[in-house]
Structures are given as C-alpha cells and as structure tokens.
Amino acid sequence: MTKRLNVLVQAYACNPLQGSEEGVGWGWVSAIASHHDLHVLTASYHREDIESYLATRPELARNLRFHYVGPRFWHYRPTPAWRKIENSIFKPIMHFCYQAWQKDAYRLALELSDEHSFDLAHVITYVGFRFPGRYWKLPIPLVWGPIGGLENTPWRYFPALGIKGCIKFAGRNVLNLLDKVLRPGPKRAFRKAEGGIISATSAVREEIRRWYGVDSVVRCEIGAVDLLQPIQIGKREMGEPLRIVWSGLHSPAKALPILLRALSALPDEVQWQLEVLGDGPMTVTWQGLASSLGLNRNILWTGRISRTGAIHRLAQSHVIVVTSLHDLTSSVIIEALSVAVPVICPNHFGFQDAIDESCGIKVSVVSLSDISDGICRAIQTLHDDEQYRQGLARGALQRSTHFSWKTTGDLVSQIYEGQVG
C-alpha cells in the first residue's frame, strides 16, 4: 500500500519495556507505525515508560501519538493488590474495571474523531474476545486482533491445577460458554470487522468460525526479539550437564510440577541443571515439591528478574521446557527461538503453531502423565544427542524469522488495504 492511513488504535496494554500483553501491544503498534500514522489509546500507567522511550527515537515518535485515558481510582494498575486479584478467582473484578476504562477510552475516541479524520479503527489489546469496546459504532472500518481467549482449559488438566486453580478455570470455562452465547459486544464487533479479523492461533480461528461464522487471518500475537549481536550456537561439551530453563509466573496453570516429575524420572546418567525464572503464589509449594523429589541440588530459583536478564539466561541455556496448561503463544517460546534455543512443549494452544520438528519437540497431550513422560523422553534425547540438539538450535533461529515484527507490520498493512477498499 502506498497511502499512509490515519488509524485509531486501542492498545490498553502497551509498553516498550515490558513483555507479556504490554510487549504485544508495543510490538504491534511499532510494527504498524512503519506503514501508517497511529493515534493510540492506552492506559495512563504506561505514560512514563512510553515517553522516555520515544524521546530517544524521534523517527518512531513521528508516526505514533499516544493518548492516555484519564486515570480513575478503579482503573487497573500493576500494584501488588491488583496482581493478587488478577491471579485469583476474583479476576472478573478486573473485567468490570477494564470495561469501565473502555467506556472512557471510547469517549476519548469520539473527541479525537472530531479533530482527526481516521481511516479505520484497530483494537489490539487486551488480546481477548470478550471486550472489543464500542469501536464497531464508529462510521469507519474496524480491524480487530490479535484475538485469543476463546479456548477452554481441557478438563483433563484440572488435577494439576489445585483447588483454587480448578475453581478459577472451571469458572472460566463456564463463563466462556456464556459469553460466546450471550455477550452482544463480540457479535457486533465480529460482524463489523469481518475481513479484518486476526486470530492469534489456528485453534482460535476455528473457534471464531464455530461461534461467530466469520473467517480470520492467523498471526501469532508475539514477535521475535530484536538482538543487537548475532547469535552464536554453542556446543555442549562432553560431560557438561544439559542446561534447562523454565520461565513464567509461578501460578497453577503454568504447571511446573509436570517438569519436576519428568526430571525425577530421568535415569541417573542424565546430567542436568534447571533454572526456574520468575516467582508467584506457587513458588514455595513448588520448591517443597522439588525438595521432596530430591531435585533441589540441581535447581536454581532465580526469583523475578528483568526481561533482559531473562533473555540473557535463556540464551545461555541448551533447551527451554514449557509446561503451561493455559496459554496462547507463550512469549518465552518466541524468545527462545530468537536466541537459538530448542523448545520442548505440549502440543496444544499456540505452541502447536509456533513449534515444528525443525526447532523443538512437541509432546502428546492426551493426559497429564503423557505430557510428563514426553518431556522426560525429550530431555533424555537432547542430552544424549548433541548433534540433534544443535540442529534444533539452528532450526529455532531460522524459525524465529517467521515471527518478525516486520512480517506482522506488512500483514496488517495488507489487511488495512482490504478494509478501506
């Protein structure tokens, strides 16, 4: 497309210095800004990070204008109290507050529409189907995505989630069904955005077809890490332990015990070291399990570290193991590919799209024991066959190019062209 469009964007979660949803929002808007001029509605608590970052990048600032929705005391902020709510059965409180923020954001969008002639609107984050906002009311085309959240957590995974986790995800499964059937906002937004819908995974695409009768383009919500130095694929020396990384919030759905039980089943001749990155409400419980399994002498619990520090530790490892039982495409998977680290993961959710036989090992998800047994076998395979592991490392680096932000920006620009006609 030769014409630069003037685009109104909702990216509630958007921060250049963070990962997860905030990194998704920032990656998408910065990628799209290479093609178009964006006015981005975002949460006010990102303001300091965004403005300090853009101050050193005037070429990006020219195409990105941020509008911070005025903070109210009930708006979410990443405080300890809000994080407890976010990771508990009381998360619906966040949904209510997010909808209140969206109403304020829409009022601001109407004001901006009087000042600027927008060609289309694009809802990016949060990456979820429940709350697309009211942008379907605007008299301009709508693009929506990446979209996730439609998949249920399989009931066979519930024994690994604990009592609180079972209550949380059972409630979520029921709520998902009710929202798909009853909630009018998504139905209106899907109708308005038809032709401009972006699914985060192929499974989400099928759910959208099933429940809303429209098609979508599949594009992973995560982008590859831009590194300043070229990656050197190192060789694991004879007798050197296999260095394994696990990374994520220490919450029931991330299911670290699956890996711990896999490690406890390894033969004695398999030498390994594990770094567990991050922290959370399950840290103490998981450390107790590791101790009872006799694993702690080989495990380093790092606690919460910066994203830069996590990527550095990841780059020094031989393999990453992902055990999540509820996800889209975990950011650590794409980060691992970007630094040439093979991935062992369950064959479900966005993992099945991101990982192929060139860059990792996907294990059966018929049952929890299948996942643990498959991870155990995969670790032993990589421990015993360094040439195979190095081949996967080279494949990971090549695979990461599929997730470049440039490719995302190019794809979105094509979608915009189709929507504006």
Helices and strands in order:
Layout: E1 6-11, H1 20-32, E2 37-43, H2 47-55, H3 58-61, E3 64-69, H4 80-86, H5 92-115, E4 120-125, E5 142-147, H6 162-182, H7 184-193, E6 197-199, H8 202-212, E7 217-218, E8 242-247, H9 256-264, E9 272-277, H10 283-292, E10 299-303, H11 307-315, E11 319-321, H12 331-338, E12 343-346, H13 351-354, E13 360-363, H14 368-384, H15 386-400, H16 405-420
Parallel strand pairs: 1-2, 1-4, 2-3, 4-5, 5-6, 6-7, 8-9, 8-11, 9-10, 11-12, 12-13
Helix pairs in contact: 1-16, 9-14, 12-15
Structural features:
421 residues, alpha/beta, Rossmann fold, 2 domains, seven-stranded parallel sheet, six-stranded parallel sheet, 16 helices, globular
In short:
The protein is 44% helix and 15% strand. It is built from 16 helices and 13 strands. The strands form two sheets. A seven-stranded parallel β-sheet has the order 3-2-1-4-5-6-7, sandwiched between helices. It has a six-stranded parallel β-sheet with strand order 10-9-8-11-12-13, sandwiched between helices.
Helical content class: 40-55%
Give the name of the CATH superfamily of the largest domain.
Answer: Glycogen Phosphorylase B
Biggest sheet architecture: 7 strands, parallel
Strand ordering within the main sheet: 3-2-1-4-5-6-7
CATH topology of the largest domain: Rossmann fold
Assembly classification: single chain
Supply the number of structural domains.
2
Low-confidence stretches: none
Total strand segments: 13
**CATH class assignment of the largest domain:** Alpha Beta
What value does the Rg take, in angstroms? 22 Å
Report the portion of residues in β strands.
Answer: 15-25%
Note the overall shape.
globular
Q: Would you tell me the structural class of the helices and strands?
A: alpha/beta
Mean pLDDT: 93
The CATH architecture of the largest domain comes to 3-Layer(aba) Sandwich
Write down the secondary-structure element order.
Answer: EHEHHEHHEEHHEHEEHEHEHEHEHEHHH
Distance between the termini: 11 Å
Q: How many helical stretches?
A: 16
